[in-house]
Amino acid sequence: MTHPVHDSAYSWFRLLITLAIATVANVGMWAVIVVMPAVETEFGAGRAEASMPYTLTMIGFALGNLWLGRLVDRLGVTWALIGAALLSALSYLLATLAPTILWLSAAHLLLGLGTAVGFGPLIADISHWFLRRRGIAVALVASGNYLSGAVWPTLLADVLAERGWQAVYLTLAVVTLVTVIPLSLVLRRRLPEEAHGTAAATAQLNARSAGLSPRALQYLLGIAGIGCCVAMSMPQVHIVAYCVGLGYGPAVGAEMLSLMLLGGVVSRVISGMVADRLGGVMTLLAGSVLQCAALFLFLPYDGLVPLYVVSTLFGLAQGGIVPSYALVVREYLPPREAGARVGFVMMMTILGMALGGWMSGWIYDVTSSYTLAFVNGIIWNGLNIAIILWLMLRSRPRGQAVPA
């Protein structure tokens, strides 16, 4: 028996507000990717060293998903959003004052902590308000991450070209404060305690079918998340630098990143609808296989038009993967621990992005080519596929028509 609050008109209104917040809050994850060539030039850094601010951003983003997810479980999402918005704005300001790459990297560690509130914590929060349509709800909120990366770099391209990356960061600090804090106040309503009952019962049935303890399943999903996101990070983190190296320039790379992320938005929406019918595990496996296939296409094609096409295909292939992890967590693990459990798995996927972003830069520095970096991503993707396939074959979860 579902609670009246699930899939209600208020749930959809809350989803709309949450998506708006996510589109602004997540921009801190993408800002450094667009300005990476300018940072490399300003500080005289190598490709791996210039990748460190991104890597530190992702480490902070990972830790923030876990920490802020636990905070959402205890205090609700509004207080987490307000604190994170203030931290993000401060971090943007500190980055503009950086005299060294080390200072800049430290500022991005803090920026990652603040930016994290726009991902796992918001996904965990919205997942409580839906039951029948949880897949599409989670997918739409997760799409805020990609919408942010697709929209803001384009909007701020003129600022970057005319006034430099510091002006971009100051603009983002102001936008974050004036948008996230007022909208967070709209989300003050808390879910009724009795609304957890149906979700808890279904999750318990699914967990029994898997034959794994909650902790074991959580760690297994975390390892799989690292594998898929090391692979995912190669095109996403280095596409701008890759295009610069090929002679196409940073503007072309930014356009390819936008296409990749817009494709990811479409993928996430479609994956959400699929997950409402097939469940998170099947959706996750399908996305992982498609991502691996798309990565192979980067190896033979480096012409301008083919790269536009392959970047779009990659976005369409991989966009639904990370939200599917959150759905698997909600299908198998206790709902009252959703913030912490989703936060942990999101943390592991993000650590995979951080590791992959640095690793690809290091491989480039050693080989002067991104070819082996793509191969490295394909190998890690294979690990992810193996784990999810094993989980799918081990368990045939019940109650998939109504996810937990």
Fold and architecture overview:
InterPro entries: MFS, MFS_dom, MFS_trans_sf, Proton-linked_MCT. This is MFS transporter. Pfam families: MFS_1. GO terms for molecular function: transmembrane transporter activity. Keywords: Membrane, Transmembrane, Transmembrane helix. It is globular, with a radius of gyration of 20 Å. The protein contains 17 helices and no strands. The chain is mostly helical and 404 residues long. The C terminus is likely disordered. α4 runs antiparallel to α5.
Summarize the structure.
This protein has helices spanning 9-25, 27-43, 47-75, 77-96, 101-115, 120-127, 134-155, 157-163, 165-184, 196-210, 214-246, 250-278, 280-298, 304-318, 321-332, 338-367, 371-394.
Tell me the structural class.
Answer: mainly alpha
SSE order, one letter for each helix or strand: HHHHHHHHHHHHHHHHH
Proportion of residues in extended strands: under 5%
Alpha-carbon Rg, integer: 20 Å
| Broad shape | globular
Per DSSP E runs of 2 or more residues, the count of β-strands stands at 0
Organism: Ruegeria pomeroyi
Transmembrane segments: 12-39, 51-68, 75-95, 101-124, 136-155, 167-187, 216-233, 239-266, 278-299, 305-328, 340-364, 370-393
Domain Major facilitator superfamily (MFS) profile: 14-398
GO molecular function: transmembrane transporter activity
Keywords:
single chain; 404 residues; mainly alpha; 17 helices; disordered C terminus
What secondary-structure arrangement, pairings included, does this model have?
Elements: H1 9-25, H2 27-43, H3 47-75, H4 77-96, H5 101-115, H6 120-127, H7 134-155, H8 157-163, H9 165-184, H10 196-210, H11 214-246, H12 250-278, H13 280-298, H14 304-318, H15 321-332, H16 338-367, H17 371-394
